[in-house]
Amino acid sequence: MPQITSASGAHHCSSRLQAIRSPTAKLIAIACLSICGFGIKSHADDPNRPNVVIVYTDDQGVGDVSALNPTAKFQTPNIDRLAREGMTFTDGHCSDTVCTPSRYGLLTGRYSWRSSLKAGVMGADVEHGLIEDGRMTIASLLRDKGYRTGMFGKWHLGMQFDGKAGQRDWSQPFRDGPIDHGFDEFFGIPASMNYGVLTWLEGDRVTKPAAMWTAKKPGLVTYDKSSYRITPPYGSEPKKSRLGGALEVADDFDDVQALSRFTDRAIQFIEQNSKHPFFAYVPLTSPHKPVIPAPEFVGKTKCGAYGDFMIETDHRLGQILDTLDRLKIADNTIVVFTSDNGAESTYKKRVDVFQHDSSGVLRGGKRDLYEGGHRVPFFIRWPRVVKANSTTDAPVCQSDLLATLAEVVGTDLPADAGEDSESFAAALRGKPFDHGPLVHHGVKGHFAIRDGRWKLILAADGNKLYDLQRDLSETTNVAESHPDLVAQMQAKLTAIVANGRSTAGESQTNVGGVDYRDWCKCCRESR
Fold first, then answer.
1. CA distances from 299 to 289, 311, 347 (A)
2. What is the pLDDT of residue 518?
3. 157, pLDDT greater than 90
4. Which of 48, 262, 308, 374 is at 20 to 30 A from 28, Cα to Cα?
5. What pTM value is reported for the model?
6. CA-to-CA dists, residue 96 to 359, 367, 439, angstroms
7. Distance between CA atoms of 60 and 341, rounded to whole angstroms?
């Protein structure tokens, strides 16, 4: 590693060392060496202990990044900056097509359908959280390597609050949140805002009891009849609205504050830990509903409230990047930017109203097994290692981040961790990387498998095989022309499911068992 020193300062220290002989003087010499930058490596200079920041957006399609979509109706200069200063993964995927399971895959390196959740998502208050007790997460991996770990944003992996709605003991800690799964600090909310228990959470406590009641109020997106807001005033009795049932809420909760609060707390955490290796996980609530840009962003784009919300999202990322620059730690900080799934289905209306396509050239969006459901924005910047303005077309999945970071920090994963996590650290260093088959999973529990250029969707109405090299938009089903290939891919999927892992290693057990043939019920057509 090159040493960064002042030549005159080094000479000054060297000449002073000639006369040093006493033990006390030797201590002074050591201090001088440290000041001059000789021999002692701070964590900021150590590529085996980089800081890690993951910014995770919610329902953002590939078309919502101006660097990926030349016809976008708004600009995302800070996301584009990551592309310019880092690596773009043009074939990057979330593990599922909706919130909860993708977050499980990201943090644990294991496909969600191996867990107790076989379809759908979790709410805010559940009987058992999705991450099993003792299961390794990115946070616990890095904490065990001496990192300080913090999460700031939306959890949505299930937690338990004491008592039932309207009869809570708010003095008690909630269980199964981030603090129980490897994070030293947490500030955020339990789940998406439509699931209730709407209060700001700190550590394993609520900052204020969610003892008031509200219902969804009409939102800002005029072309979406389900658009809503969570904003005061609130009431003392549960009431419904045309948009949904009653929700528990704290009197100081306001949806428009979420992005700024999460970002401010993430920045505070980074500032407090800048001289120590840290991991900051920042799962934002945008551009998921409620679509509610802060006042200073309203009317700034030609794509309505959604476009305004996206440029606020980009701005919040920029605040984090600026903090890394100001603290002079950007060079050895890995910044990952990606989304939990593709764009919400209202993207089709935005095409009509604003001529903006959040899915770009991809077919489908959130909940779909087509590429638009799980091929997402995926950027990594690490100036010390990753070549600027580089691109890879190697398929990668968010579940691969656990194994990748384990390799970066020099540790091996145990047999019962990261069963579906394949390190792509080689790709970050500009070396060839070939991924094994990827399994995609839809909201209703149906499956698809990706193997090289080929993708097979298993559906009740027949198999659908696409050659993504020639047909990225998945317009032509060629299953009938390749029956042997279909059979081979089905066999690979069967083996991946039955083995309890898709990577090399000791076979593991799926929670509750999984048989893809029982789950491929329907492939939801979105286009």
1. 18, 11, 19
2. 53
3. yes
4. 48
5. 0.91
6. 16, 8, 9
7. 7
